[in-house]
Write a structure and sequence with these properties.
The chain is α/β, with parallel strands linked by helices. It has helices spanning about 5-10, 30-35, 55-65, 85-95, 95-100, 110-130, 140-155, 175-180, 200-205, 230-240, 260, 330-365, 390, 395-405, 435-455, 455-460, 470-475, and strands at about 130-135, 165-170, 185-190, 210-215, 240-245, 265-270, 290, 305, 310-315, 385, 415, 425. The model is unreliable at about 1-5 (pLDDT under 50).
Length: about 475
């Protein structure tokens, strides 16, 4: 929260006004002294505002209206698939039989929940073309790390301790090299061609007997399908390496093509993105990992299995990499994803892909004359523009993003991927109407015109927010996280 916002409620403070009523303490003071160490007692009274309950409610209600999310505005955040979260998902997740479960209940008392998770795994197996799935990982990056730990366990189990390197495209998500490093690997960068695809010849150059895996998103972060994926799989497999699929962009290929059929050995999925679980603000997330048969022994334990008519947690996994999350994943997000898959069906998931790709190409073609288009070819679910043309007029991609806030939109992803200068990555998703797309396009066209005729209005944006343009470097290095009395 910005300092100006924090100060608002303190400016309302008047001595004697009370916004709460606490019951009298029923614990003897002697007991408190015995239970709580002396160093933990507050010595001075906290400096809290004296405000009525009504003023408190109005204050926080006003603050809530300054938040934006997918339910309130168009959120074209490239690579994050910020699409509408159907409310039926929320209703089902709140069923007493799901919401009131305890993770330590006996298996016999949670058969419905276990069945749902087992069935969800089967759906994800079919969607990805894998042989088994674990729901344990808590997010996409957690799924990446989990998969790479299985890659490591697989190679070591085969006595192959020299496979220490993971190959990652220069257009990859930043979590890829981070996850590989945390898993104990060295990272090797493979270059992109001028067409935005992995350079096959450079891939041949960097693979070798030390290659553990290739991490790849397909379509890639630029929104282009890696059309040489089968050849890439042959190259990596040919030297004994494995292929890992970053499922962040699965929204572009569901029911059209499966990672398993492309040659991938492991894949993570973002249930909180592709499968409409809410995300942002640090969670909740869910990053299930699917694997081919060779990796089943190394899956995190326990594994949900079906024995006759019962569903059980199988802990008898001697080669497992072990538990990667307490209990068994973020169950509420699993319920939402399961509801989404069952309500959409195969035809519905195919339509998701078709409309996501259609919307992205529509927006790209309407904007290509006002902004630079680095890769002039059909995209998948997202596309990138460059603000180089506007930069020559003194307007950066950051300025364009700030100006979009004045039009009521959350800005797209900017300055990523790094291989495109002044990059703006836009993903409209399949859930937005043509009218919404047209309104956003009109705003982008107006900003492009302003860059030519009145760049100052963009450079000083946003204009109609409570807080104006911040010193972003100072805000990142010295954030104000609590009220400070002036």
């Amino acid at each position: 929260m910005h300092k100006d916002d924090q100060a608002l409620i303190f400016e309302l403070s008047k001595p004697g006004r009370i916004g709460f009523s606490l019951p009298e303490m029923d614990v003897p003071e002697t007991d408190i002294n015995e239970l709580i160490p002396e160093g933990y007692f507050r010595v001075e009274e906290p400096e809290l505002p004296e405000v009525s309950e009504l003023d408190i409610m109005r204050h926080y209600t006003a603050l809530s209206k300054r938040n934006i999310g997918i339910d309130s505005v168009f959120y074209p955040l490239g690579s994050c698939t910020m699409k509408y979260n159907p409310k039926i998902n929320e209703n089902v997740a709140r069923y007493n039989g799901f919401a009131h479960l305890h993770p330590l209940q006996d298996e016999s008392s949670v058969q419905g929940a276990l069945e749902l998770m087992y069935d969800l795994q089967q759906h994800l197996i079919e969607i990805t073309g894998m042989d088994e799935v674990t729901l344990q990982p808590a997010a996409g990056s957690h799924g990446e790390w989990t998969a790479l730990m299985m890659v490591r366990a697989f190679h070591e189990a085969n006595g192959d301790f020299n496979r220490t390197k993971v190959i990652i495209p220069d257009s990859a998500h930043g979590t890829n090299p981070a996850s590989a490093t945390v898993a104990g690997f060295e990272t090797v960068t493979v270059k992109s061609t001028k067409d935005g695809l992995v350079d096959i010849e450079d891939l041949r150059r960097v693979v070798g007997e030390d290659t553990a895996a290739l991490m790849l998103t397909n379509p890639n972060t630029i929104g282009l399908f890696e059309e040489h994926i089968l050849e890439m799989a042959e190259i990596v497999h040919g030297v004994g390496g494995k292929l890992y699929y970053d499922g962040a962009n699965l929204n572009a290929i569901m029911s059209k093509v499966r990672p398993g059929d492309m040659g991938f050995d492991l894949v993570h999925l973002n249930l909180h993105k592709t499968f409409t679980g809410p995300h942002g603000g640090g969670g909740p997330g869910s990053g299930p990992v699917g694997v081919k048969a060779d990796f089943i022994p190394y899956l995190p334990k326990p594994v949900i299995t079906k024995q006759g008519d019962k569903y059980v947690f199988d802990y008898d996994r001697p080669q497992s990499i072990g538990r990667v999350k307490p209990y068994y994943g973020n169950f509420g997000i699993n319920v939402r994803a399961y509801t989404y898959i069952r309500s959409m069906g195969p035809d519905g998931l195919k339509a998701v892909t078709e409309y996501a790709v259609l919307n992205a190409n529509y927006m790209m073609r309407r904007l290509q004359h006002a902004y630079d288009l680095p890769f002039d070819r059909h995209c998948k679910h997202e596309f990138v523009l460059s603000g180089n043309r506007q930069k020559k007029l003194g307007v950066r991609a950051l300025d364009i993003a700030k100006r979009l806030i004045d039009f009521g939109y959350h800005p797209p992803t900017i300055y990523f991927p790094l291989i495109v200068e002044e990059c703006m990555m836009i993903e409209p998703t399949e859930t937005e109407s043509k009218e919404t797309l047209d309104a956003f396009i009109d705003a982008m066209l107006q900003i492009a015109k302003e860059a030519e005729e009145n760049p100052e209005i963009i450079q000083e944006a946003p204009h109609n927010t409570v807080v104006g343009r911040l010193d972003e470097t100072l805000a990142a290095r010295k954030p104000i996280l609590r009220y400070q009395k002036q």
